[in-house]
């Protein structure tokens, strides 16, 4: 079963009666209807188990969620087997065919049928998830007051530019993942076995099968998109690397890479914290949202309401009252929880929640807009049969709120009092572009490499004895980022990133980072917003909102290519929108990098 994480892929069907042999198309229709009904009937039990396991980590909730997943995955296997009688049956209605195809892709954690292995897999998955959520680094294990969690260690990286303090915090967090390695090796073996039983070559092959194209074509598609954006990333990396060299004279490696611990982010996936160091024209604009949130004493609830206000302004429905009552917005003081932000649909009928540990800072403020994107997707497609209650593909789900983030322009932020009013100028525009690029462009290679690592683990080209070395080889190849302390196979650095122990596929975020600019280009056009794309905010624009909502309502009821075509007129993912968006910054970066050596060995 695909555990509820960032965007919930529906739970699994339970014990639907098989159609008779020599199945007919009418049998297939009934089968899919029965699966949908069973999904509804059994949905709440599993999401409730997952919710408590993540908001109340202890041995008991770990057991409960493992058991719930075990039952669900067992029943999924049964139903996938039953659905095989319709393989090759001519004359199926497209919706029934699609329902059957989507059934096989219900989970990112395909389990072997062998009951002992199934139980083992769900226990490992729960243990890994709990281990990440409760991860802490303690200077004295016997003294809890010496322990620091991910928030505390991340804060050091984001706010402190001291080389040694950052290195210490980075190393401390990465140490927490060492113990996960053995579990992950077994986890990979078991999901591979489950995938093979479902008819896929391995778990990576199965993950890549969820995009209305062949697994091989999908791989090529990700390479094609990366080749479109790579030149822009390389220029940003070059500029940042030289600036960091000035900031930390003599400290950087000579090979052109950026040290992993000084980007202001634990995984070097978002470099926004480096903005003060990298801004093109200091003093020209005031984009310090962190300071404004603190100054205005924004509470976590007020931050969420601020984000809700945006979605309401484009005509989306209000969030249900239960959303505010049942969401977890802050880190509880008395227990371990999985703080990594996620959005949940607990019952397919309006019980939607987010789970975050919000602090009054800009990163969390933006993440709230991201999470609400998932929430409104759930609400929009709740009227569909459960099998279609997922994103057009998972990258769409991740792109909904991110698109809205693009409307958090300096103009919008000034309007709501979270940034200073800035006189429009080329300099101010380049500052704003840089700030956004440090979030969105810096992310691209990271977004791609996580699953390249896992695809390699699953297809056997990355062996357990090479897990960590392969991870860093990919970090270097794609990001031009390298660790400043020696790493070895004692370490398991992939485990320090939530989505690995949490088993959330990651290519979705890479796709979302391309798609969100396509969406934004179209919404701005549909909404009649004049001016350059990078200045467009659809705040208050009900025409754009209506067009967006119509897309959300489609869920996965048709191939994503059709859904994208309905919105943008083109059924293909395309990086030209993100490149157009950042064209001014790219030109500026090229200018800055002139005469400098760029690239890494
Ligand atoms: O995991 C997330 C969201 C929840 S779906 C907070 N994101 C990725 C990450 O944090 O690694 C959003 C951007 C990338
Ligand atoms: Zn998300």
Please outline the major beta sheet: 2 strands, antiparallel
Percentage of β-strand residues: under 5%
Q: Shape from CA axes?
A: globular
Biggest sheet, spatial arrangement of strands: 1-2
Mean pLDDT: 95
Radius of gyration: 23 Å
End-to-end span in angstroms? 41 Å
Report what the structure shows:
- The protein is mainly α.
- The chain is built from 23 helices and 6 strands.
- The protein has helices spanning 25-55, 59-83, 94-104, 115-133, 150-159, 163-175, 181-197, 203-208, 215-247, 275-278, 289-295, 300-313, 321-326, 362-381, 394-405, 410-415, 426-459, 467-479, 507-526, 542-552, 560-568, 576-581, 583-593, and strands at 137-138, 147-148, 258-259, 342-345, 352-355, 481-482.
- Helix 2 crosses helix 4, helix 12 (300-313) crosses helix 14 and helix 17 (426-459) runs antiparallel to helix 18 (467-479).
- It starts with 24 loop residues before the first helix and ends in an 8-residue tail after the last helix.
- Mean pLDDT is 95; it is low at 1-5 and 7-15.
- It binds L-captopril and zinc ion.
- The site of L-captopril has 7 residues, from helix 14.
Write the layout of secondary structure elements.
Layout: H1 25-55, H2 59-83, H3 94-104, H4 115-133, E1 137-138, E2 147-148, H5 150-159, H6 163-175, H7 181-197, H8 203-208, H9 215-247, E3 258-259, H10 275-278, H11 289-295, H12 300-313, H13 321-326, E4 342-345, E5 352-355, H14 362-381, H15 394-405, H16 410-415, H17 426-459, H18 467-479, E6 481-482, H19 507-526, H20 542-552, H21 560-568, H22 576-581, H23 583-593
Parallel strand pairs: 3-6
Antiparallel strand pairs: 1-2, 4-5
Helix pairs in contact: 1-2, 2-4, 4-7, 5-6, 9-17, 9-23, 12-14, 14-15, 15-19, 17-18, 17-19, 19-20
Bound molecules: L-captopril and zinc ion (ZN).
């Amino acid at each position: 079963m695909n555990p509820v994480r960032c965007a919930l892929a529906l739970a699994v069907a339970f014990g639907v009666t098989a159609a008779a042999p020599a199945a007919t198309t009418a049998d297939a229709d009934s089968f899919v209807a029965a699966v949908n009904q069973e999904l509804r009937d059994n949905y709440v039990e599993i999401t409730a188990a997952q919710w408590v396991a993540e908001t109340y980590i202890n041995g008991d909730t770990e057991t409960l969620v493992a058991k719930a997943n075990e039952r669900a995955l067992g029943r999924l296997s049964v139903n996938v087997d039953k659905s095989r009688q319709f393989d090759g049956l001519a004359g199926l209605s497209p919706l029934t065919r699609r329902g059957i195809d989507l059934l096989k892709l219900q989970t990112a954690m395909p389990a072997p049928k062998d009951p002992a292995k199934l139980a083992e897999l769900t226990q490992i998955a729960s243990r890994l998830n709990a281990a990440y959520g409760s991860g802490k680094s303690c200077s004295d294990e016997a003294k809890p007051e010496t322990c620091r969690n991910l928030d505390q260690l991340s804060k050091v990286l984001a706010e402190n530019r001291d080389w040694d303090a950052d290195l210490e915090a980075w190393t401390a967090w990465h140490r927490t993942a060492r113990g996960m390695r053995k579990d992950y090796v077994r986890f990979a073996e078991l999901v591979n076995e489950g995938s093979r039983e479902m008819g896929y070559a391995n778990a990576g092959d199965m993950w890549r099968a969820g995009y209305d194209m062949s697994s091989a074509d999908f791989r090529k598609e990700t390479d094609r998109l990366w080749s479109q954006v790579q030149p822009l990333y390389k220029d940003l990396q070059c500029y940042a690397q030289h600036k960091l060299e000035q900031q930390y004279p003599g400290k950087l490696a000579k090979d052109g890479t950026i040290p992993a611990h000084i980007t202001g982010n634990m995984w070097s996936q978002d470099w926004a914290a480096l903005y003060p160091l990298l801004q093109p024209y200091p003093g020209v604009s005031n984009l310090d949202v962190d300071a404004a949130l603190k100054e205005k004493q924004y509470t976590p609830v007020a931050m969420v309401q601020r984000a809700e206000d945006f979605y309401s302004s484009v005509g989306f429905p209000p969030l249900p009252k239960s959303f505010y009552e049942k969401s977890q917005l802050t880190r509880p003081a008395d227990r371990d929880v999985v703080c990594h932000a996620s959005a949940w649909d607990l019952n397919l009928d309006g019980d939607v929640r987010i789970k975050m540990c919000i602090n009054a800072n800009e990163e969390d403020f933006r993440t709230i807009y991201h999470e609400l994107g998932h929430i409104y997707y759930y609400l929009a497609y709740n009227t569909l049969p459960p099998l279609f209650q997922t994103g057009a593909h998972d990258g769409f789900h991740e792109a909904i709120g991110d698109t809205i983030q693009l409307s958090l322009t300096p103009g919008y932020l000034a309007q709501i009092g979270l940034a200073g009013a800035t006189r429009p100028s080329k300099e101010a525009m380049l500052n704003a572009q840089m700030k956004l690029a440090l979030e969105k462009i810096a992310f691209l290679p990271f977004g791609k490499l996580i699953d390249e690592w896992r695809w390699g683990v699953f297809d056997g080209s990355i062996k357990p004895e090479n897990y960590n070395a392969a991870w860093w080889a990919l970090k270097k190849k794609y990001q031009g980022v390298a660790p400043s302390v020696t790493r070895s196979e004692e370490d398991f650095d992939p485990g320090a990133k939530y989505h690995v122990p949490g088993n959330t596929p990651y290519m979705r975020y890479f796709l979302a980072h391309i798609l969100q600019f396509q969406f934004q280009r179209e919404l701005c056009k549909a909404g009649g917003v004049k001016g350059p794309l990078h200045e467009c905010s659809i705040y208050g624009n009900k025409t754009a909102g209506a067009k967006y909502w119509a897309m959300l309502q489609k869920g996965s009821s048709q191939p994503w290519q059709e859904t994208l075509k309905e919105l943008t007129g083109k059924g293909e993912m395309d990086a030209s929108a993100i490149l157009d968006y950042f064209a001014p910054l790219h030109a500026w970066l090229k200018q800055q990098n002139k005469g400098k050596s760029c690239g890494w060995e």
